Amino acid sequence: MLRVVQAMLCALVIIPVFSPAFGLTQQELVAKLESAGYSQIREIRSGKVTTYKAVKSGKEVSLVVDSFGKFKELP
Questions:
Q1: Model pTM score
Q2: Beta pairing partners, 45
Q3: Which domain of life does this protein belong to (predicted)?
Q4: 72: closest CA among 13, 26, 1?
Q5: Sheet of 71-73: strands edge to edge?
Q6: CA 10 to CA 16: how far, in whole Å?
Q7: The total number of structural domains that make up the chain
Q8: Could you read off the pLDDT of 60-69 as tens digits, one per residue?
Q9: Number of C-alpha atoms within 13 angstroms, CB side, residue 8?
Q10: Which 8-state DSSP code applies to residue 20?
Q11: Which domain holds residue 6?
Q12: Cβ neighbours of residue 1 closer than 8 Å, sequence gap 6 or more
C-alpha cells in the first residue's frame, strides 16, 4: 500500500500524468515501452492518477508517462 501511495505522489509532483487525449494512443505507448524493454504492460488507475506496471529484466516496475511519451520508473 505504501508503494502505491508513493507512486501516486511522485506522479502528481514529478511528472504530468499521461492521458491518451494529449498525445500518444494506448497502442503507441505500449509499443514505445516494449521497444524500451518492458513487457506485461498494464494501466493502473486510481482516481485521476494513472500509472503503469510493467516487467523489465524480470522485475516488476511502476512507471509514469507524460503527454509527450517520456516515461520514468518510480522508486
A1: 0.66
A2: 50
A3: Bacteria
A4: 13
A5: 39-46, 49-56, 59-65, 71-73
A6: 10
A7: 1
A8: 999 998 777 8
A9: 11
A10: G
A11: 2-73
A12: none
Residue count of the chain? 75
Quote the cell numbers at residue 13: 509532483
Q: How far apart are CA 29 and CA 32, in angstroms?
A: 5
8 Å CB contact between 15 and 64: yes
Confidence of residue 6 (pLDDT cuts 50, 70, 90): low
Question: Which cell goes with 31?
Answer: 509499443
Place of cell 507512486: 7
Q: Residue 3 corresponds to which cell in the numbers above?
A: 508503494
Per residue in 45-55, pLDDT (tens digit) is 877 777 899 99
